[in-house]
Write a structure and sequence with these properties.
The protein has six helices and no strands. The protein has 188 residues and is mainly α.
Length: 188
């Protein structure tokens, strides 16, 4: 099954919405990364709440994209990723006293699933958009990060914060660049 025809005016009109959500997700990831690097000694409670808010907003963004984007080929993965992000965010906000290891497992599982979903989306969109390699790269970074956190969940709070912060900064910058490319594509 092929994706939408980018020359179709309806698809082009929907791209500005898509690029804005991608850039918003990137900006939120960068802000989240900066916060964790500026205050690496945050308690597990504060880190859980900050992660919860980020995951909740990111999950809502993925769900919005799933229903606004005319390309239905990977809608199920975006819906699944969005629901997982919302669930992870709610769990982290409602039970902020969870241990660092539990938070690490939650973050690792979320990043792994999100990364796989983005790799699948990049493969499916490779003929429709330029910059799908950036989406694939963001997905690969997310999946690698998720695996590393799942393998070593007992890292200290400062190490997890630094690790999460660096990942979030790189991931956010990649998403911002992808969003800018989508915006340029929407204008053509």
């Amino acid at each position: 099954m092929t994706g939408p025809d980018v020359s179709d005016p309806i698809v082009v009109m929907d791209l500005p919405k898509a690029w804005g959500l991608v850039v918003l997700r990137g900006v939120l990831a960068v802000l989240f990364g900066l916060l964790t690097l500026i205050w690496p000694g945050l308690t597990a409670l504060a880190l859980a709440i900050v992660f919860g808010v980020y995951a909740l907003v990111d999950g809502i963004g993925l769900l919005m994209d799933a229903f606004r984007n005319p390309d239905k080929s990977n809608r199920g993965m975006r819906i699944f990723g969005g629901i997982l992000g919302i669930a992870a965010g709610i769990i982290a906000i409602v039970w902020p006293g969870i241990t660092v290891a539990a938070l690490a497992i939650l973050v690792g599982a979320w990043a792994l699933v999100t990364g796989i979903a983005e790799i699948v989306a990049a493969i499916r969109l490779r003929k429709q958009i330029e910059g799908e390699l950036l989406l694939g790269l963001a997905g690969l970074l997310s999946a690698i990060f998720g695996l590393l956190v799942l393998i070593w969940p007992a890292l200290g709070v400062a190490a997890i914060a630094a690790f999460i912060g660096v990942f979030a900064l790189i991931y956010g910058v990649v998403l911002i660049v992808l969003g800018i490319r989508l915006r340029k594509l929407a204008r053509t």
